[in-house]
Amino acid sequence: MDSNDLKIFRAVAAEGNITKAAQTLGYVQSNVTARVQHLETEFGVPLFYRQRGMVLTAEGEKLLPYAEQILHLFEEAAKVMNKSSEPSGRLAIGSTHLTYSINIPEIFSEYHKKYPEVNLSLITAKTEDLITRILNFQLDGAFVKASVLEEKNFISELVYKEKLVLIASPEINDLQQLYKLPFLLNSVGCVNREMLMRYFNSQGIRDLTYIEFNSLDASINGVISGLGAAFVPEASIIRYEKAGLLRSFSVPEEYSLVYTYFIRNKNGVVTSAFSEFVRMIKESNDVNFIREDKI
């Protein structure tokens, strides 16, 4: 077994398909098939079910995190041995769908123009999925949202505080009217939704109607069109409220303050590419972090 076998195994597991994995890796399909079969022979167990694609067996599931760690160590060794201080190589960043206050597309664009040698990628997912990817060394860093974040295996490089507010159309004059509306919320697991549920419970509010909107812009536009109410970052609706398109309502801080953390695995190597990305975030005019930890 060598690192290339594990790289192929990881790609097939991610793509769920030999052909797609071969295309991703730039290999001949027959070579990918042969290397997977070689691994299975070496371990003496099947690693994939071969029905309608390639699905990991129980043994394959056990191997995957070890493969991730081994490949990560190879990648980290290459980074350490690279004497150049100019950012280059891979930089994989994760983010939730609701990281509104940090203008990630703009930062990515600026970063790519300045450091075209960096292979930059952005993965969007739920906070729990991003944390898992950070712990498994699949991401170099990630923006995650939470009311409180406690984990011994990663470091929060930056923390940004954000206030959530209830919003409804301008015709809604008070909270009692607002509570009667359908609520446009993200799916279960979203910190905004969890905070709102806590607030409703504190008020003894029950029997609400929910409509799932996994997009901040869609939720705001839904409120403007009169579809219902929503619980969103205050910074995201200021211009709409000034234009008279909606009305906002505050709730107590214990139910409205959430935090965006930029985290990394504490055992990962801090590369020049990563350090420069953090610097750009800090210098963004649209972002006011409440803590900046040295890296």
UniProtKB/TrEMBL annotation:
It comes from the Bacteria. This is HTH-type transcriptional regulator YusT. Keywords: DNA-binding, Transcription, Transcription regulation. PANTHER family: HTH-TYPE TRANSCRIPTIONAL REGULATOR, HTH-TYPE TRANSCRIPTIONAL REGULATOR GLTR. Gene3D superfamilies: 3.40.190.290, Winged helix-like DNA-binding domain superfamily/Winged helix DNA-binding domain. The gene is yusT_3. Belongs to the LysR transcriptional regulatory family. Residues 1-57 form the HTH lysR-type domain.
